Amino acid sequence: MYPAIFLVLVFYILMVSIHYYAPSEHKVFSHIGLSFALISTATFVIDYSLQVSVIQPSLLLGETDGIALLSQFNPHGVFIVLEEIGFFMMSLSMLFMAPAFVGNTKAEKAIRWLFVGCFSLSAIAFTLYSIFYGINREYRFEVATISINWLTLIVSGILLSIVFRRAMADSQFIRKTQLSPQNSNG
After folding, report:
1. Could you say which of 8, 118, 150, 171 has the lowest number of CB atoms within 10 Å?
2. Tell me: the pLDDT tens digits for 47-101?
3. Which of 103, 102, 117 shows the shortest CA–CA distance to 156?
């Protein structure tokens, strides 16, 4: 659970980075996306911390009364629902971050499609699992949305590193040309 907590905190840092990368006319969208990322991160930190700090010690000490509802092994438990909420909020966050990428490079276009696709697939998965299984969704949607979100983050992480590297190189070039002696008026 500790690595999972670390990863969701890294996800939030990534969303903050995207927010600051977004052009000013699209910051309203990235700010909304950042808000959903915060909800997602807080949900995960609470969910995973409960598993580590409440469930595991209780099981080890034989204090099992009432913990079945909180356990990650209960397909109808709170853990599963909180993960579903966390991952759905994560995909919603990425949907609102998509407009931050206004460039026409292949990487930015791919990130936009990935982020919109992540939310779309998660919403479709939730709808279909709810229609076919109703309240007996159990782990089905959770596994689907985990797969969709993490696959999106892995692929977009590679693309984001390209986009951010180019942006950093461009800003360094601009800074160097502004500071060069040929451009000074003195």
Report:
1. 171
2. 999 888 887 787 787 877 877 677 777 777 788 889 999 999 999 999 999 999 9
3. 117
